[in-house]
Amino acid sequence: MLFVAVILFNTATAKVQNEKITYRVMYKWGLINKQAGTVTIDTRLNSDNKTFDALLVGHSASWADKFYCVRDTLKGHIITDGIIPNLYEKISHEGGDYKRDLITYKREGNNVTAHCERWKQKGDEAMTHSTKSLSATGYTIDMISSFYHMRYMDFRSMKVGDSQSMNIFSGKRKEILKITFKGYSTVQVDEKYYQCYHITFSFTSDGKKKTSDDLQAWISNDSKRIPVKLEGKLPVGSVKCFFVP
Q: What pTM was estimated for this model as a whole?
């Protein structure tokens, strides 16, 4: 089976807390190695003590705006126990194009359905609106909730090469996200060294075809579990995100 029920996941108790994490985004292509933007992730616990809201805001640097301007916002309303998303929203302004995806979840037992809405505008063309229904069986997340799931995995009880597979929804399709534990490593960010858990993300369709290049993350192995470095490939070059203390 490609899915795993949430109760079977080897996940440590989530200790979600109010926090604000900032990343420096570096772009590398050939001899170019320059800061291309920043990303901030804001986490706020709700008064019910059972849910939290997540807000990710990313924007390109002024020099990069001249080539490809990026302003992205991701929002999530998430159940703390088990890191289970209730709502996901992505608003992107990239290269003059606008897109907004809104996903609301409904669960019955181990079955998950999502109502997906998409607003899209390319340049000066008219705005379009479409809807779609996605369904899955087993643990199901999205891109913003995956940030928290990876932080609270119980790595200490995992062996190198162990992995977890789960459903992940975007605004238009269901994919399978596989997170593989690669072991322990020391990561230097500026003048500081962090002892980290190293993991990889791989994305495939239901037919097991890869839908994008793998991502890598290094998560501090202290109580804060902060991803201090993330790395991925682009069609041209690569991008690395470094935690800014």
A: 0.89
